[in-house]
Amino acid sequence: MARRRPGTKIEQPPHAVTQAAPQGATVPSESPSENPILQQTDLLRLADQCVKCGFCLPHCPTFRLYRDEAESPRGRIALIQGLLAGQLRDGQQLATHLDNCLECRACEPACPSLVQFGMLMDGARAERVARQPRWRRFAVRLRLDLLSNPHALAPLALLAGLYRRAGPGWLARRLGLLRHPRIRILDGLARQLRRPTRITAPPSQADGDAPAVGLFLGCVSRGLQPATAAAALRVMRRLGIVARVPADQVCCGAMHRHNGHPEAAERRLQQNRAAFGDAAVVGFSSACVAELRMGLEAVELCRLLIDTDWPANVRPRPLPALAAVHEPCSHRNLLRDTKAVYALLGRIPGLDVIALEGNDSCCGAAGTYLLERPETATALAADKVRQLAERQPRFLLTTNTGCAAHLAAQLQAAGLTIEVLHPVELLDRQLHT
Known about the structure:
Blueprint: H1 36-47, H2 61-66, H3 73-84, H4 92-99, H5 107-110, H6 117-130, H7 134-147, H8 153-166, H9 168-174, H10 181-192, E1 213-216, H11 221-224, H12 226-238, E2 243-244, H13 254-258, H14 262-276, E3 280-283, H15 286-292, E4 298-300, H16 301-306, E5 321-325, H17 329-335, H18 339-345, E6 351-355, H19 369-372, H20 374-391, E7 395-397, H21 401-413, E8 419-421, H22 423-431
Parallel strand pairs: 1-2, 1-3, 3-4, 5-6, 5-7, 7-8
Helix pairs in contact: 1-3, 1-6, 8-10, 10-21, 12-22, 15-17, 20-21
């Protein structure tokens, strides 16, 4: 059922014009960005590709949830056009609708005009951030820098451990506080976060002349999915893949790019390019792989493993169990290669693999979105939780760190004991002798 939102009322500045600027026109700007005219012209050109046909509407999670035109891709494009053309002020109403976008990019495969909506939304957010006061830009950057710094995870993990052991978690449940989406999400993340440990590649038994690949660890993945990185290294070693883990790698930059700080994202790409050198980059979190591909040659882990010739003596043990596969938006709509996941799981004898119904709709994690808009994030995960409660699989498998953490938290809050894993973690278990 659609949720109702208050009627959209967008404030107009006194100098509002009566028609949209023509394609390619130079639009006056108050942006302090280095080249605001070029940036706005490019954004308007991207936006003008949209013919407002509406093919995107049934594919947009927020439109399906709220049934509000301003919560649809074409509605948001119209708002961006109005903002850049000087017709609309960047007030609270407009900010709410633009910031509510998950950037899941489900609209892109459905668009007959091939609108690059993700690029447009990233650019629009960067433009809006550039117009903000310096103190606000600094505050947001500081928060993003902390979230994307693996060293900052240690004190957060310490606090999470105290929360788990000292009783606040029990008290939150006892008082029924988990009914509130924000507390439910924070409770779930606190129960999963662990202190990052140093991850190094084990000695390889492969041919010394074999080219090495570099394993990308990510940032929050080190605290939320440390077992995935260790499993990936073990599986690659069993298949004869030489892997190394560059110590000077940093966050992929996706959090910064999608929150309007592309220059910080580009710096992180440059740092990773220097860290990995000529080695192929392998990532186990699909969102990281999608971001890394903007500056490096990166491959998703399941695709690498399924394209590798397996030694004859490597045979996973049978596992008679039901496993549901969640396809993250980053894997489905950006990498567009979810077949590798199913092919890899097909190597495990006896495993009954099903695709989670509604994989074409975002689960609500979307990077930092679940922290900033917990009500919408929880509402979008609800259908998936209900479906999992009906099917009762033993495992829920997904290839994105944020999705895994979000869904695990929602399942735990619902009292379901379905284990959430990366596909490679399950494969690693079945390869152990």
